[in-house]
Design a protein that fits this description.
324 residues; seven-stranded parallel β-sheet; two-stranded parallel sheet; globular
């Protein structure tokens, strides 16, 4: 089914920009991207089928107006940190607002206006019994997405592993840390990750919009290889030209590190992030066949953007000198 008007909530971010670009390149759909700040979305305006609008997506009246103009909605909004909730609560108020309440509002608006298609971004490892507020709130968001089935809203949920690509906040962060610090004390050094390329994630969303068989399904999105966190940090250091010694921290020191980092500006890490790493960020199987995606290897992409222009020029010169 071809969608004439697609609303992409969270379309100006790292993953959202890729989804918008792929949709604009492969379809004739008109794409609307609400944003809080014009500056964050102006890079999308070079695409003729894309329009941005300043909007507070948490305002139900505003969201209702946006959804009324669409025939498919994509929700990519997510956060990594939240204040803690009352004792005994599954997750904090910020996770509640963004990961749970927002999809409930979107689904309700879709049902009201007869919008039959909803694509929802979750996270690998989402579970109501997950070890972190983040993973538990993501599971509640999935439940909100699928609750629309009885109201005629067909949802597809995606669970990506940690996402890499140019401008990511994962490998780039570890590369920057190694540029400025002589060694890296690392919590969760042996936790396993299966990073997925941002372009593959975007492709999954685009293909799901075009494939009726994806309705009502949940898809894990992960790359072709599994690494420990230590291996990923080492790779980021080597590719950026600043490899540093990596010191794995025992649980008590890891928790202490997370406590201090969550109170610093920029909040590089939190105790809840550390709790998420109690489970490996690894898919249960290969990417679904109906998505028809060959996962991109991290080694094929990350060295290029982590190195920067200068190192890339050096590598090109080396290859020329070696006759490659």
């Amino acid at each position: 089914m071809a969608h004439k008007n697609i609303l992409i909530i969270g379309g100006s971010g790292f993953i959202g920009s890729q989804v918008v670009a792929q949709l604009a390149r492969t379809t004739t759909s008109r794409i609307t991207v609400p944003t809080r700040r014009y500056e964050r979305s102006k890079h999308l305006l070079v695409m003729p089928t894309v329009r941005t609008t300043i909007a507070d997506i948490h305002d139900e009246a505003v969201l209702d107006r946006l959804v009324a103009e669409a025939d498919a909605v994509v929700n990519l909004v997510g956060i990594l940190h939240s204040r803690r909730g009352p004792r005994g609560s599954a997750y904090g108020p910020d996770f509640q607002r963004v990961h749970v309440d927002l999809p409930r509002k979107i689904v309700a608006a879709c049902a009201k206006h007869g919008v039959r298609r909803y694509l929802h971004m979750s996270a690998l490892g989402a579970s109501a019994q997950g070890p972190s507020m983040y993973l538990r709130s993501k599971a509640a968001g999935e439940a909100a997405a699928f609750a629309g089935a009885g109201l005629g809203v067909a949802a597809t949920v995606f669970r990506p592993a940690v996402v890499f690509g140019e401008h990511d906040n994962f490998l780039n962060m570890f590369a920057a840390m190694q540029k400025h610090f002589p060694l890296i004390p690392l919590a969760g050094a042996n936790v396993r990750f299966q990073p997925v390329y941002v372009g593959d994630v975007a492709q999954a969303f685009v293909k799901a919009l075009q494939n009726e068989a994806t309705r009502g399904q949940t898809y894990e999105l992960a790359g072709p290889h599994v690494y420990t966190l230590r291996q990923l940090v080492r790779l980021a250091g080597i590719c950026s030209g600043h490899p540093r010694p990596i010191i794995g921290l025992p649980p008590m020191l890891a928790s202490l590190q997370a406590f201090f980092l969550e109170h610093l500006p920029g909040r590089l890490m939190s105790r809840d992030n550390l709790a998420s790493m109690q489970v490996d960020n690894v898919a249960t199987g290969p990417m679904a066949a109906e998505l028809d995606i060959e996962p991109t290897a991290l080694e094929a992409v990350a060295p290029r953007y982590l190195a920067g222009v200068d190192m890339q020029q050096q590598m090109d010169a080396y290859r020329r000198g070696a006759g490659r």
